[in-house]
Amino acid sequence: MLNVARWPLVAVIMVRALATLYHVVAGRPGLPQVEWGPIIGASLWLLASGLFALYTGRRSPATGYLMGSVGSSDASWEGCR
C-alpha cells in the first residue's frame, strides 16, 4: 500500500516545491501559484524516476543497489559536458 501511495505524495510535494522555487527565483511578491511549469517539471522528473526504478528493478538484487549511485554519477557526468 505504501509503495502505491508514495508516487502521488511525491508528485504533490514536487509540484509545490517547484512552484515555490520558480516563484522565489522570479522574485514575484505574494504566495506561489501552481501553474503549468511546475506540473510539467514534476511530471517529467517522476516519469524519469519511475523508468529508472523499473530499469534497476529488473536487474539482480546485488546490481540494483549499485545502479543508483552509478546512474546518478552518469547523469551528473553527462550534465557537465
Describe this structure in a few short sentences.
By secondary structure, the chain is mainly alpha-helical.
The total domain count is: 1
β-sheet strand percentage = under 5%
- The whole-number mean of residue pLDDT values reads 75
Q: In terms of per-residue confidence, which ranges show pLDDT below 50 for 5 or more consecutive residues?
A: none
- H-E string: HHH
Cα gyration radius (Å): 16 Å
Gap between N and C termini, in Å?
40 Å
Share in helix: over 70%
Work out the number of β strands: 0
Indicate the overall shape.
elongated
Tally of alpha and pi helices? 3
Structural class: mainly alpha
Give a structural overview.
α1 (2-26) packs across α2. The mean pLDDT is 75. This protein is mainly alpha-helical. The radius of gyration is 16 Å and the shape is elongated. It has one domain (7-72). It contains three helices and no strands.
Keywords:
83% helix, 3 helices
What is the strand and helix layout of this fold?
Layout: H1 2-26, H2 36-57, H3 61-80
Helix pairs in contact: 1-2
